[in-house]
């Protein structure tokens, strides 16, 4: 007898970070989208928890010291600057020890965020939970993951930035609502 494939449910991405807004959005999704999705076909939705770890840009030492060892430049948008090329943006140069410490902190934070998100999901047996931690700008990571897994829905929290703050630092949810290739639900946390 041929194996019968399990019916496939929706692929729901929830963008998570260390903020209360994304935690609320995940809880909202589980209450309002996943819980209401139980079907007679037996299809289980897949909830993909996505976390974007920022990565510090790299460049080689330009003054000839350190024999080409890489250093990290924080606070810039420069991915790699070859020797003899002057960066157009400024940042702070750190040693390898400091960047290793910052990388460890970033990994630990990602682990903590994902552990918290998985704990929130553990009582929902009607959904399959997957975890994706990717390095990069949150906007790009989220939209690329939507494309890659062909998501049906993207759920994310809103920090509630005002017009001025959004203009200066940008809004991940605003970007994703305009660029993700699936419906986007932006969940705003009620004022306490």
Task: Pick out its properties.
alpha/beta; five-stranded parallel beta sheet; three-stranded antiparallel beta sheet; 5 helices; 8 strands; 35% helix
CA gyration radius, whole angstroms: 20 Å
- Give the strand order of the largest sheet, numbering strands 1, 2, ... along the chain: 6-2-1-7-8
Q: How many strands in all? A: 8
Shape: globular
Average of pLDDT: 78
Query: How many DSSP helices?
Result: 5
The N- to C-terminal Cα distance equals 57 Å
As residue ranges, the low-confidence spans are 59-90
Question: What does this protein look like?
Answer:
Residues 59-90 have low confidence and may be disordered. This protein is of the alpha/beta class. α3 (138-149) packs parallel to α5 (172-179). The chain has a 5-stranded parallel sheet with strand order 6-2-1-7-8, sandwiched between helices. A 3-stranded antiparallel sheet has the order 3-4-5. It starts with 7 loop residues before the first strand and ends with a strand. It has helices at residues 20-34, 96-121, 138-149, 163-169, 172-179; strands at residues 8-15, 44-53, 58-60, 70-74, 92-94, 127-135, 153-158, 184-188. The protein has 5 helices and 8 strands. This is Adenine nucleotide alpha hydrolases-like superfamily protein. Keywords: Hydrolase.
């Amino acid at each position: 007898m041929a194996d019968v494939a399990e019916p496939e449910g929706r692929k729901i991405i929830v963008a998570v970070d260390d903020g209360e807004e994304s935690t609320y959005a995940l809880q909202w999704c589980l209450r309002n989208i996943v819980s209401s999705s139980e079907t007679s076909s037996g299809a289980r939705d897949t909830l993909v928890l996505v976390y974007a770890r920022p990565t510090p840009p790299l460049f080689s030492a330009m003054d000839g010291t350190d024999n080409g060892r890489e250093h990290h430049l924080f606070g810039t948008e420069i991915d790699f600057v070859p020797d003899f090329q002057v960066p157009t943006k400024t940042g702070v140069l750190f040693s390898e020890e400091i960047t290793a410490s910052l990388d460890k902190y970033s990994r630990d934070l990602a682990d903590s965020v994902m552990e918290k998100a998985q704990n929130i999901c553990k009582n929902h047996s009607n959904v399959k939970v997957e975890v994706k931690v990717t390095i990069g700008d949150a906007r790009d990571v989220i939209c690329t993951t939507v494309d890659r897994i062909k998501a049906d829905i993207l759920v994310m929290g809103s920090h509630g930035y005002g017009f001025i703050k959004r203009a200066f630092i940008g809004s991940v949810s605003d970007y994703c609502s305009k660029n993700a290739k699936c419906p986007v639900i932006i969940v705003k946390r009620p004022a306490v």
